[in-house]
Amino acid sequence: MQTRMEYLFGKSLQELREVAARVGLPAFAARQMAEWLYSRGATSVDEMTNLSKKGRECLTAFCEVGRSGPALCQTSVDGTRKYLFPTRNGHFVETVYIPDGDRATLCVSSQVGCKMGCRFCMTGRQGFEGSLTAGEILNQIYSLPEREQLTNVVFMGQGEPFDNLDEVLRATEILTADYALGWSPHRITVSTVGLRKGMDRFLTESRCHLAVSLHNPFPDQRRQMMPAEQAYSLTDMIERLSREDWTHQRRLSFEYIVFAGLNDSKAHLRELVRLLAPLHCRVNLIRFHTIPDTPFHGAVEETMIQMRDYLSRHGLTCTIRASRGEDIMAACGLLSTAKKETK
Fold first, then answer.
1. Catalytic: which of 63, 94, 114, 318?
2. d(CA 35, CA 248)
């Protein structure tokens, strides 16, 4: 029976030490492998020429690097690019590259589809196909043609990062490690609808920025839009976040998609101010991007500006996020690989 190949890409330095020990390589070979994987861009074990020939042969017998380039690229009129990456079990995820002057942000996926079922999101409609490994998450970054231009990574693509937190934390650990890109954790933002089981761990184990998908300050109304509210109430989440120190470099933000006549009233604004007043945070107002067969409608620009100005006057840092890549279904809430999965 053929042995299933083990993937090196996505392993931490400690895990690479364990691999080295299994094939009879010295412990320092782990750092050499890490350098080839995360600094030199090796796509095969044979490229790791400072390992002994026998060591490479032993590695090749049961290991492969496990990187793969994008299967498809679409380019928006505004310069945004959406890439389709294959996963190791035959699925696909979408990844969005957003250039903006001297900044370039990559929106990565953590799952194929999503379990959260938010009513306004195409990924939620896709359903859940599986979680990505750390290697599959990192592959979206390392196999990106524009990797050298990246300044920031946001976990805001397909999936709920806190529902796959082990692999998300493994990926961010490698991104920030000295044997890999060595990024500051403050170049990375992880988004969540607010899962209780992941919140404490993330706040304790990570120094990356946090973005919470809020979208409505009233729990009963939020529950109708976002079923996750049933599992972890907004009130409990805000109480937990208020116990953290957000006054230094680590940033807390709240994402707020604005729906006409649904969450854009003065009552919603007053409740937002009351709810978020104890926190040092930012509110990002987001335009709703229409999806098929939806009862929701986006607010007009005048409403967006009035909401931003109201929140700003009442002490909240507030911005209107620029909409990017809508013509290629790359904007917020539009990512889905459901059609690709059926081919």
1. 94
2. 32
